[in-house]
Amino acid sequence: MKKLFGTDGIRGIAGESPLDAPTIYAIGIALAHHLGASPRVLLGMDTRESGKWIAATLTAGLTAGGASVESAGIITTPAVAYLTSKHGFSAGVVISASHNPWLDNGIKVFGSDGYKLPDATEIAIEEEIFRQLDAVPTAALQQATPPPVNEADREDYIRFLLAAVPGLSLDGKRIVVDCANGAASNVAPQLFAGLGGEVAITHASPTGRNINEKCGALHPDVVAAEVKRCQASLGITFDGDADRALFSDHNGNVVNGDAVLLLAARDLQAQGLLANSTVVATTMSNMGLEAALKRSGIRMLRANVGDKYVLEQMLATGAALGGEQSGHIIFNGRSTTGDGLLTALLVLDMVHRSGKSLADLVSDLKVFPQVIVNVKVREKKPLDTIPTVVAAIAAAEKELADSGRVVIRYSGTEALARVMIEAESEPLMRHHADSIANAIRSELGA
């Protein structure tokens, strides 16, 4: 059982355990030791004000462990994954808490192949971190400085993205791009500058404290409203580290990751590139997606939540496409992790080649009513050991039967229990979601 790593790295409030300076230093040493003799590590970060001191502290630990460190500066998570693999780094590390508020931060690690580390590797690194914690030198923390930034890394990543969509032109289109005041702010303006059309870049003025604040993929209605206001063709919105993207059609309707999976699956199928006619989604994807894919002769598999688990199932089954409702989309062979900017360009290319609007391309996706209730918890006790919760779940599953789904899980990045129910009957859906949430809140509520 992992104690530090969640579904997407180590996260917490910057300055507090496990993101206090001694633990970050120990993480650096442990990672360097895990990587072997004379490893090279690439660092990147989003726009949070805590990023610089965390980078300095982590660099000090990595260096003490025998590693050399290069920084790509403020850059997206998938950029670090790509650059790590391309340039032969031993590992890539991203300092980011993705969609979390600015006070939070995190440390994500990619292996030399650009893939996120397996759970077994993270557990082994954790054991070393705890061994190192008692011996962290105070002087080393006081003298820590971040490594110099190599600006060429961003240029390299942008060339990779543009090469994925040769011939893409946005001429005649008006596009709105929301950068969430995050890492995309340092990449998207340059990326879209050469594609033609009229591109409005919004929320690209990070202060260190405004990342994800009433913007970005957590608030897709913001870009949707702007698309409708300025009569744009399409809107794109990223999260803080731009490993996911959501969209808006020209009518101002949000187009989520499920719809993108449907669009991309059909496009790949038409080109004969959808291996085994299979798509990997997660337990959170809507039943409507499964039905729409089935009508196109495409099988949908479900993985646990987290793009690393989606990717594991993709690699195990040979699937070419997978992703999450939240906007993490993985194109196997093109990327080793969810990449919001790559997804945005590929969706724009699909729309461009089709000659249709985004709304038309996903118009037959009939979404079952779905609700997600987040319950703050003080501990993550196994839910199947709590009788009142078990009873509430059983009652929901019995009444919904084949006309709905119940998915209850803990967040891998926050102290939350997530209650997701979808059903043909919206009143039943809400009744059972509230019943289960109240049972969890009564037993474990923070």
UniProtKB/TrEMBL annotation:
Cofactor(s) needed by this chain: Mg(2+)
User: What keywords sit in the KW lines?
Assistant: Isomerase, Magnesium, Metal-binding, Phosphoprotein
A Pfam match = PGM_PMM_III
* Post-translational modification summary for this protein: Activated by phosphorylation.
- For the modification Phosphoserine, which residues carry it? 98
Q: Which residues form the Alpha-D-phosphohexomutase alpha/beta/alpha domain?
A: 3-131, 155-252, 256-364
* Cofactor notes: Binds 1 Mg(2+) ion per subunit.
Question: What family, per the record?
Answer: Belongs to the phosphohexose mutase family.
Protein's name according to its UniProt entry: Phosphoglucosamine mutase
